[in-house]
Amino acid sequence: MNKLIIATLGFPIFLFACKEKKQPDPVSKQVCVSDSMLPMISIDSVKMSNIDDQLKLSGEISFNESKVVKLYPFSSGQVAEVKVNLGDRIKQGQVLAVIKSAEIAGNYSDLVAAESDVAIAKRQYENAEALYNNGISSQREFEEAKQNLQKATSVETKIRETLRINGSGRTDKNGNFTIIAPRSGYLLERKINPGSFIRADNTENMFTIGDITDVWVIANVYESDISRIKEGYTAKVTTLAYPDSVFVGKVDMINQILDPQTKVMKVRIDLPNKGLALKPEMFANVLIENKEGRRAMSIPASALVSDDGKSYVVTYKGQCDLKLHEVKVIKATEGGPAFIKEGVQLGDKVISKNQVLFFRALSQQ
Q1: What is the extent of the structural domain holding 158?
Q2: Position 84 in a domain
Q3: Neighbours of 329 (CB within 10 A)
Q4: Per-residue pLDDT averaged across 271-298, rounded?
Q5: Is residue 120 part of a domain?
Q6: Which of 27, 52, 239, 323 has fewest C-beta within 10 Å?
Q7: pTM beyond 0.70, yes or no
Q8: Residue 362's closest CA among 310, 309, 326?
Q9: What is the spatial distance between Cα 341 and Cα 297, in angstroms, rounded to a whole number?
């Protein structure tokens, strides 16, 4: 009786043990790309690329100062005529204004007297030379006549040079002198009118002529971005006036001093102005491109999946061979490439469209 009870009680235990042994081990669910899903993804390869850095700045169009000329009065006088208007296209040698000057008239009067003095001094020198050569006069008298001629000639030359400079080579005995354009360009400033009186010690210019076939863009660089810009970098400029046009220039000067108020550093961009579309004082958006030849693995930035402060990619070897990789990103550009330091290998294929769906499934395994 007792043996039967033990056998009977032990039977359920045996069945339970056998049941436990026959239960299969759990198998992880495989993640696959279905045939219907395949056209909805994009696959790109990991490749080596140059690291292109971009920096966005704001700035303003200005004149190329090396192509701007300001004209100041050399003599006092009254403006008799102004022959140009603001914005006119100016040609080198063109007459800008005529000024009547008592000072110029006085210079001509002085020139007549100086020419007379030179003629007299020349005759005296010739006589002294002849007497000296014949032994009639002393060497001292000959040298004195020679010095007098040199002084008279020097005075005449000085007056002629003054007239040439003051009238840019165009003066007359009535005291009129002309202001002519020293270079071609556009009349940017006109500060005199007929009847105006001017003085030689006036610090204000009469005209400004500028050539805007080349312009400068003065852009602001914040302290945190100083290390990202160097002379010679390519700059792409757009303006509000021409939002669909891109003007390409070069960074040709970097100011080494920060503005104490705004804490920005000024950089200058030399920009060809085709069609003279760009005007000084225009606001400009500047994109600085740094292409120094550094290389790294790259993938489309769209292939990255960010989660909890980390970056991941989904690699593809086959429809049912997907893997999740954490990657170290050097730099990612919106709509462009992402440069990878580690986490993938050259030639790996990554899913760059709708990869988030597979990331979720793979991350739960």
Answers
A1: 102-174
A2: no
A3: 19
A4: 86
A5: yes
A6: 27
A7: no
A8: 326
A9: 7
